[in-house]
Amino acid sequence: MSWTISENKFGKSRAVSRGNKFLLANGYMGYRGTLDGDDKHDFVALSLAGLYDGVAGKWRETVNAPDPLFLRAYCDGEPLLASEADEFSQSLDMRRALLTVRTCFKKCGVSIKSERIVHFERMRELGSRVVIHADEAVKLRVEAGINGDVWDLNGPHLKDMRFSFNENGIRCECKTQELGVPLSTSLCFSLKPTSVESGEMSAKFFYDVELEAGEEFILDRIAYVGFGEHSSPSEDTAFADISAGYDAFFKSHIESWERLWDVHDVRLVGDRRAQLALRYSIYHLLILTPRTEGQSIAARGLSGQTYKGAVFWDTEIFLLPFFAVNDLDVARRLIEYRIKCLDGARQKAASYGYDGAFYAWESQDGFDACSDFNVTDVFTHRPVRTYFKDKQIHISGDVAYALIKYLSRSSDISILYDGGLEKLIECARFFYSYSRFNHTKCRYELLDVIGPDEYHERVNNNAFTNMMAKFTADAAVEWLEKVRISNPELGAEMDKKFGCDLAKKLADWKDKLYLFDEKDGVIEQFDGYFGLEDVKVDEVRSRLVKKNEYWGGSGGVATATRVIKQADVIAMLVLFGDRFSSSVVQKNHEFYLPYTEHGSSLSASMYAMSAIRMSKPDEAWQWFVKTATVDLSGKSKQWAGEVYIGGTHPAAAGGAYLTAVYGFAGLTFDEGQVAFLPKLPKKIRAMYLTVTQNGERKKVKITREGAKFL
Ligand code: BGC
């Protein structure tokens, strides 16, 4: 029950949202939920994690590989297109990570069932089975092959494309433009073709098929997509292999997913739609599981090139909590990614004249891909200078925060020895050097920053940022002292690198670091925020002249007002929940809510969590549903000014899990020990989930009365 999402109407205009909604992926690659005969105009994309390329003068972004699953059937020379089908349905069976499209064409008495998987274990492989059923005698031509004419936002990224054939399949080799990384797509077929054809950008097998009434034509395909040292399926062959049969390939994929769901599923008893949405969120988290060392998760997952395939704070704050419950190896991998990027962060800090590590706002393996001009003005069509890269310094605090959360969850102190401690210290040193001492007020301040609310740029003393900075320094001091005892060699190395007085300097600094001002219990988001025009979201929205106008920056409609893009103070209260009373949370929640546009999908879950903190799980419910359904409903922002920002929203999926498991079920890890303090909303009678403690998986039932290990 509640495992399948489906649509029964075609809707040409839905190509973009369909591609997102029905995405298949496995952490290594993502294949958008487009249809077999689609091409770049329908936003087909096979996105590869962590393979970046830049074309001169354009944004560097992830590479889309040639599409190996192109297939079109023809009847009387006319293509059988889904847009013209008499019946159409598309469904995603999340339990098996299986996409199925059914079409029926009455004019030639044919129905087509097309299944597709992106194999979870054999991560460089994907496959498809197409079954064409003849209701009456029919002659068909089927073409299937590799289409190298791919959809790109800032491409083209592929050059030197060459096609070759063996008797079972096709191979496409090419290189990326910037670094010349070899990339190959090989495709093999279960049937020998009638003829083959190769062009500059594509190569195909053709099948001339004659079917009697009741007969079926079945074509299986398995494709291999690899780059760098993996650009061939094995040392023995450059071609993909289907000799073991599609059934075995399919079976092993299903078995992997059974194992995944056995551990990660969360059952909600009481509301089937919410159950479906939560499963869908978990599905989206699982398909992004980083597969290789030093890999993390991009803000738009594997749904395309939006946000350049870059890693944002989304991963540390919204995705890590999911992996921390039952997959500490992956959680550690996410932490290691930032250790790997430490040099890049140091270089970024140095380039602005600071010490320590200033992490990339949009990280491509440490390189900051964030442009100086992130939006385009819809009136003048000119690029607008935005300061996300230069001023969103909280990123270094988010990185430190995630490390400490991982540490307290796992007690894996080795992460500190393996570069974690140095990362933490460097983040603290960065904040230290960024701060200025205010002689009049006798305190350190963090001036000219951007908090999570991106509409207000270059503000002073953003409460969220200052709290993160203090937290980072606290943690650096604490762990430096502890490591001096547990690993004196590393302690000495740190002293040598950063000076013996670092802990003292940081301790002194953090005590003098200003945090925020407050009025009647309401925390001011940044200096002067309370003095901004007191209008609410609807009023600001009504002032828009054009629909896609950018709200923030120097001249946006929200800039001079209290209206904010996303949870900011509320995010701080959620992340540092133990330091604030629930009445403070309530005051701030009630104050900031009417000013919050939720223009980012990161916002809703924070409000859900604060509502739960206020013991109002029924109020949290609406925010939970909102965050869990972002990609199901497709009702998310597609444009920032004139820049396309569509794609899936992993942080919203992570936020749904966070709300359900850490919120409604009230999961905490106190010194590694699992505890639950449930606050179930009326809609939910019980929850079932798995949690890992000391390496052991435990099934838990949550009810209003409490938690019971099963
Ligand atoms: C949000 C950021 C977020 C980014 C990627 C932006 O719209 O304001 O907080 O990190 O999207 O999801």
**Given the C-alpha coordinates, what overall shape results?**
globular
CATH topology of the largest domain, what is it called?
A: Glycosyltransferase
Helix percent reads 25-40%
What's the CATH C level of the largest domain? Answer: Mainly Alpha
- Poorly predicted runs are none
Distance between the first and last residues' Cα = 22 Å
**Overall mean confidence score, pLDDT:** 96
Number of helices: 19
Radius of gyration: 26 Å
The strand line-up of the biggest sheet is 1-8-9-10-11-18-15-14-13
Q: In the CATH classification, which architecture of the largest domain applies?
A: Alpha/alpha barrel
Integer count of domains = 2
Largest sheet: 9 strands, antiparallel
Bound molecules: beta-D-glucopyranose
Provide tags for this entry:
single chain, 710 residues, alpha+beta, Beta-galactosidase, Chain A, domain 5, Glycosyltransferase, 2 domains, 9-stranded antiparallel beta sheet, 5-stranded antiparallel beta sheet, 19 helices, 25% strand, binds beta-D-glucopyranose
